[in-house]
Amino acid sequence: TWDRVQQRLLKTVGHNNYKTWIEPLELQSLNDDVAVFTVPTNFMGNYVGQNFSDLILHEFNVDGFHIQRLGFKVAVQTGASAISGKRAPLFEVMDDDASDIALAEAPVKAAPSVVKRPVAESETLEALQAAPLDPRFTFDSFVVGKPNELAHAAARRVAEGGPVTFNPLVLYGGVGLGKTHLMHAIAWELTETNPDLNVLYLSAEQFMYRFVQALRERKMMDFKHLFRSVDVLMVDDVQFIAGKDSTQEEFFHTFNALVDQNKQIIISADRAPGEIKELEERVKSRLQCGLVVDLHPTDYELRLGILQTKVQEQRMTYPGLSVADGVLEFLAHRISTNVRVLEGALTRLFAFASLVGREIDMELTQDCLADVLRASERKITVEEIQRKVSEHYNIRMSDIIGPKRLRSYARPRQVAMYLCKQLTSRSLPEIGRRFGGRDHTTVMHGVKRIEELRTVDGQIAEDVEMLRRTLEA
Ligand code: ADP
Ligand code: MG
């Protein structure tokens, strides 16, 4: 039985995964609803449980079994077991994610010893303040709309000072949605109301840089002491330290030390902490302990609001210039979700208009922003792709999005995922969400599968090409 199941799993999970995770499993017992395997290590049991349970259960039950759960017993050792297979979310193969999980299992090193030595005089906090705060990034200049109201409210709350209610505050969202702006605004507000407060803002990159420098110059004690003596620590773009092991380790200790002292920590990232690959599990879970709020992509109203505010700013530089009716609406409508691009467009418009001595009207806008407008032209959407693919394969759209695993749905679904990856700027997790809330690893697996098939399966190659042409037309 197990042999047959294994053979099928080989096809589903691919050779590498099979060799690593499936082949070493030994079926120990099989009764009504539980299959128990012996595994060489506890880690392996956990990993297989988390990642392959559904597939294994499925393949067994195709053979007429009614297995509900899988058990993994560690061979020899103490016999510790990890039972898995609960109504798990749909798990699928993670082709190259093993290192990520292995990291999570890495032993936690002992905490650094207590700092006794006084800080070297030259190393002041000012010296450490590597990133000056941008004076334009205040709460006053931040436009609030539906997509960012929660993040804004949370930032406001933290900026009030007072007792720490949620720690850390994690702001996440795509590029140009205002994370840095909000962090600076908090810093400005805090230091304005309480000038004695040590507020340290820096990017994760600068954190790493300081850390490496301290290592090199043998100043780790100073480093630790400095970071542990701030009242508020803000680390921007924390995804940067993912995969950088010793920096993560130091970050983790700094983080814990500050939380222990009840000091406020504010973090930003370009996606949800749980979705940052190669970020250690323990760092992720620390980040998730606080308040995690996301900045959604801007909508039309917010973009228009931001444009109106920015026009006021531009007027300071170019007092004589006016903007014709409809221009801002046009820009808000046409330019993507990234506020930075929107701002850039406006700056360019004003500079250009003052140069040629023209009013900012639609004609000038079209002339001056032709490239920007072209770049943001007609975006192919996930829904469009799903619709075209379902038409092509003559199935219902709900079958593409739905949970059915029949091959006649699974393959078109993978084709659709592949096209979404190729033709839209959506991230894997975003695509997964639009496919009935699937995990990003499922999407990754689907994309890879089609990539492979395209080279060996003429029919798939043709389907994909044809769909791409219709979509891009
Ligand atoms: P992120 O750090 O999320 O990539 P930034 O905070 O650097 O984005 O924002 C990019 C630019 O867009 C900045 O100039 C910022 O002032 C502006 N911006 C973003 N969101 C807003 C908003 N809601 N109101 C005003 N300006 C905004
Ligand atoms: Mg930023």
Automatic annotation (TrEMBL):
Function, in words: Plays an essential role in the initiation and regulation of chromosomal replication. ATP-DnaA binds to the origin of replication (oriC) to initiate formation of the DNA replication initiation complex once per cell cycle. Binds the DnaA box (a 9 base pair repeat at the origin) and separates the double-stranded (ds)DNA. Forms a right-handed helical filament on oriC DNA; dsDNA binds to the exterior of the filament while single-stranded (ss)DNA is stabiized in the filament's interior.
Binding site for ATP: G176, G178, K179, T180
Keyword field: ATP-binding, Cytoplasm, DNA replication, DNA-binding, Lipid-binding, Nucleotide-binding
InterPro entries the record matches: AAA+_ATPase (IPR003593), Chromosome_initiator_DnaA (IPR001957), Chromosome_initiator_DnaA-like (IPR020591), Chromosome_initiator_DnaA_CS (IPR018312), DnaA_C (IPR013159), DnaA_dom (IPR013317), DnaA_N_dom (IPR024633), DnaA_N_sf (IPR038454)
Record carries keyword ATP-binding: yes
Alphabetized GO MF terms: ATP binding; DNA replication origin binding; lipid binding
Source organism of the structure: Epibacterium ulvae
Family stated for the protein in its record: Belongs to the DnaA family.
Residues of the AAA+ ATPase domain: 165-295
Region Domain I, interacts with DnaA modulators, residue ranges: 1-104
A Pfam entry, by short name: Bac_DnaA_C
Residue stretches making up the Chromosomal replication initiator DnaA C-terminal domain: 381-450
Subcellular localization, as worded in the UniProt entry: Cytoplasm
Transmembrane spans: none
CDD domains: AAA, Bac_DnaA_C
Segments for region (Domain IV, binds dsDNA): 354-473
Oligomeric and partner information: Oligomerizes as a right-handed, spiral filament on DNA at oriC.
Protein name, UniProt field: Chromosomal replication initiator protein DnaA
Main location: cytoplasm
Record's GO cellular component terms: cytoplasm; plasma membrane
A GO biological process held by the record: regulation of DNA replication
Keyword Amino-acid biosynthesis found: no
Domain notes: Domain I is involved in oligomerization and binding regulators, domain II is flexibile and of varying length in different bacteria, domain III forms the AAA+ region, while domain IV binds dsDNA.
HAMAP family found in the cross-reference section: DnaA_bact (MF_00377)
